[in-house]
Amino acid sequence: MTPKTNELLARATSIMAQAYAPYSNFSVGAAVLTSSGNIYVGCNVENVSFGLTICAERNAIAQAVAAEGPSIKLEEIVVTNKNADGKSIPCSPCGACRQVIAEFSHPQTAIQYRGKQTDIRVSMEQLLPDSFRF
Ligand code: THU
């Protein structure tokens, strides 16, 4: 936990209301904290051609880049979810999102998401060891 974790959790939770998820009925919210201290949020945006779906994490990161430019660094990320019953279930960032998170993170960037009993917090290094780099 950092002083910003609760705010990130609240922002990720509230952005789930904006999710466009008519196919899965699974809403995801993400809030990212950049090194400048700003928070950006994103939700999942699905598409009838399923592969075009945009995940919440990548949406939030795109918002951060659009607002602050290409040199952003992510310090902390919180991801929330809500299934068709309105319940939060264990769900970690997908593989594609892990690689995109890695692009803008440092090895100690913290990623928090829903686990079985409670929230899980890991470092970028733990979430995607040996990520692809040139
Ligand atoms: N989803 C995310 O937004 N982030 C993830 O890391 C995992 C999956 C979304 C995509 C899709 O809209 C829904 O969850 C079900 O797969």
Q: Could you outline the blueprint of secondary structure elements for this entry?
A:
Blueprint: H1 5-15, E1 27-34, E2 39-43, H2 56-68, E3 74-82, H3 95-103, E4 105-114, E5 119-123, H4 124-127
Parallel strand pairs: 3-4
Antiparallel strand pairs: 1-2, 1-3, 4-5
Bound molecules: tetrahydrodeoxyuridine (THU).
Residues 21, 24, 26, 28, 44, 46, 53, 55-57, 93-94, 97 line the site of tetrahydrodeoxyuridine.
Structure description:
- The protein is of the alpha+beta class.
- Helices cover 28% and strands 28% of the residues.
- The chain contains four helices and five strands; from the N terminus they run αββαβαββα.
- The model has no long low-confidence stretch (mean pLDDT 97).
- The protein has a single domain, classed as 3-Layer(aba) Sandwich (Cytidine Deaminase, domain 2), CATH 3.40.140.
- The longest helix is centred in the middle third of the chain and has 13 residues, at 56-68.
- It has a five-stranded mixed sheet with strand order 2-1-3-4-5.
- It is globular, with a radius of gyration of 14 Å.
- It has helices at 5-15, 56-68, 95-103, 124-127; strands at 27-34, 39-43, 74-82, 105-114, 119-123.
- Bound molecules: tetrahydrodeoxyuridine.
- The site of tetrahydrodeoxyuridine has 13 residues, from α2.
- Tetrahydrodeoxyuridine binds at residues 21, 24, 26, 28, 44, 46, 53, 55-57, 93-94, 97.
